[in-house]
## 1
Amino acid sequence: MSAIEGRVLTPDGFRDARVHIEAGRIARIEETGAIASDRLILPGFIDLHCHGGGGADVMEAGDAPRRVAASHARTGTTAFLATTMTAPLDDIEAALAAIEAAAEEPAGDEAAIVGVHLEGPFISRDRLGAQPDFVIDGDIALIERLMKIARIRVLTCAPEADPDGAMTRWLADRGVRVQLGHSSCDYETASACFHSGRHGVTHMFNAMSPLHHRAPGIVGAALAHARHAEIIPDLLHVHPGAIRAALRAIPHLYAVTDATPAAGMPDGDYRLGTQQVRKCGNGVRLADGTLAGSSLTMLQALRNLVEIGLSVEEASQRTSTIAADYLGLEDRGRIVAGAVADLVVLDASLDLREVIMRGRPIGGS
């Protein structure tokens, strides 16, 4: 058995405590009384929308999912959904097979791949964002085939691609979280979706019909009706004021990176699916200037949420616990006895000091 001590974020708030770890899980939490430590111990980050990192893109198949998993683990992401792009079906199937292989037996330095977020190809051509145009309509037989290759946990779908909702209902019956995104549908259609099987919103505010006071669009419907939504808090995709508006309106808003191969890498050119993107500073863009995912890490997402006014406790909830709850992962995203021992250790300045993954330290960066 090993142990780590500091200011531990438990479900009841920060406690001066020692976390005892056995066989990769939290055995018990022992309160120690006041200790002289600026070590903040939080649940490991959980990212439900991640395309790449460290120069690798999950759409490359091969060992790319493992390289992505290792890259994000170094900055505290301990579990994530490998996220695909709209692409030719052969490419999607190859990526899914590689993701499933990596998910089955993660190496010690790799974040756990807890499933797939299938972003497309069931989206609208009017709201491609950085997705290439390999759009198709919803197809139950096809999605059933894809689900036999890898565990799809979240699927982004535009109502335009599934107008009668048949595929959405089929997926919801099988526990898949169907999210509204990459769509130009109106407020009425989006509102109906939130009441009939779609569970959340993909990268809130981005690649969707915006809020206007006489045409509220998907954004208005989400603010009025959604209980879950992703948001990319790189402070580039969404203005801090819009993030705060969403925080007030959507109770289970959670952070994602939408990270590309450029995450953790220097400025320069990278591949994202079938397209070339360029990282410059905080932004990743197509040649025409369209934002194309991000270079965000979940560590920086936490810092940015604190920067715009959230407490560390709430920022941790929105970078870990809410995502775990959304997927029904009861043994992740919280520091309690019996949970997987996925922890991040920060100092008072929110600099990363250590990552503990499945009970073993992998170091920080």
## 2
Amino acid sequence: MLTLDSIQTLACGGLFLLVGYMIRRRVPLLMRFSIPAPVIGGLLVALFMLACRHWGVTPIRFDTAWQQPLMIAFFTGIGFNASATLLKVGGRQILLFLALASGLAVVQNLLGIGMAKAFGLPPLFGVITGSVTLAGGPATGLAFAPLFDKAGIHGAQSVALANAMAGIVLGSIFGSPIAAMLIDRLHLRPAHAVAGANIEAPAPIETTDTGRAADPTYAGLKNLVFMLLAMGLGAWISNGLSRLGVTLPSYIGAMLVGAAIRNLDDWLDWFGLSTRGMELIGNTALSLFLVVALMNLHLWDLAGLALPLLANLAVQSILVLAFCCWPLLRLMGRDYDAAVMASGFTGFMLGTTANAVACMSSLTERYGPAPRAFLVAPVVGAFLIDFTNAIIITGFVNGWH
């Protein structure tokens, strides 16, 4: 049996990440459903390991020591992008949309718990198949999986991946049709003279340190150093909270520190951090985290759980679609932009922000621009919901453990 150390495992993951991108470019269906390239590459390895297990062989053993630091780096990047400046741009609309998404995340967990009990499964199984993997997506699911494993959910990582992947597909399938139905039935059309007249997408929060900001090496190094600083300080915060008996994922402290540094920098302009730079580091860490995590995924743990997963996904999909048709559409203005937001809401509450943007883009290509929707939905889906969802999940884990 070949054993790869942590660096070799990371290199192998990077190779299959590139393979995932290559496959996605050549298979239009994968691009249409916004299936992430790390998921494609990692699943290739996981399926190969599943086949080898069927033959009674374990050809490779991976050292996933880099998995947790990469995961923490991604969520730290989420923290650095949580700028109060963005809330000022969208104002009430962003806060309302976030409140609706957070409220539905709670309902997703309650519904998941009910479905789990119906199948004789532990309540926390319903949480991991609820907002953890639907509102949260594969990254949040894999990040929380160790906590659920410790709480007695066997194969939590495999369950998280399966539910998140199915949610991505469903979000892509339902996102555009539900909004198109609302637009046609209610005769909604973009108000070109009004929509977005006073709303512009937030400009990237960039600074220009005279002399130094022109050096891309310095700018990149500065962003990386502050991210590492947030991760280090965040580890102390997370450890302190753990000693108080609060069950939290390891990234919470780093994400909070990142958000604090970002908003301090917005206020005082001390550090000159680049939003795009932090996003690049965070997204790179996410891609490597996902592919490494999936390479070591035990798909055989899903045996016997297909029916509960499918039943839960069916009910959760109905919940999200019904929520979009009435309270969300009505509260967001019952206009064309609100319908496009419903499409994005379906995308990221069942899948990821990539699904949300893809669904909204397909609608605007057909019906016309929706500037307010493209301001509100991506801001909430990309990182604000991760903050509130982490709090919601933590409450359920501590309450039902």
## 3
Amino acid sequence: MTVQPGRRERKKAATRQKIADTAARLFQEHGYDAVGIRDVAAEADVAVTTLFSHFASKEALVFELDEDFEQRLVRAVTDRAPQEPLIPALRREIHALVRHCTADGAAPTWRMIDASPALRQYEASMRLRHAESLAKAITADFGSNSGSGSVSNPPRTTTTCRTIARFAIDAFSLAREEPDPQAAVDEIFVMIEAAWEAGPRRH
């Protein structure tokens, strides 16, 4: 049974969403560089300290789903069905993330990100962090460090797990820039699956 969040958690989530929505509106109306943290806090009617309790930086306001995306990627590994292969599970999640980030209304935000060196740098560091979290999940699942695994699916090396994680994260970035993002995901994952199958195994 799913446990519903309490009143305090709901209030905290609502405040966070209000701040994020306010920041998105101000950035679109006035430009990212023209809007400061204090402007967002004042418009959202919260203290600057409250804003920073939800978002560590101005850049984080733009990538407000950062932690959610990271958790979704990890859960694609940890929560998949016992007999489901890894690569199809990752492909399905990347498809979902690409759909979200190429939906109607997302283009202005990505144009803003592409035009800002600070936002591009933040996005790059975010991708690396997501890749490391995903790699840890894959490594744990395939027993690279513990020596677990099976005859049909022996443990993979840490390098193989990190490489596949990085490929999956890059697939998202590459696909969202293509004319047909979903087709691009499928094309990229053909190569990712081949790399996974060809990767070294520990026996």
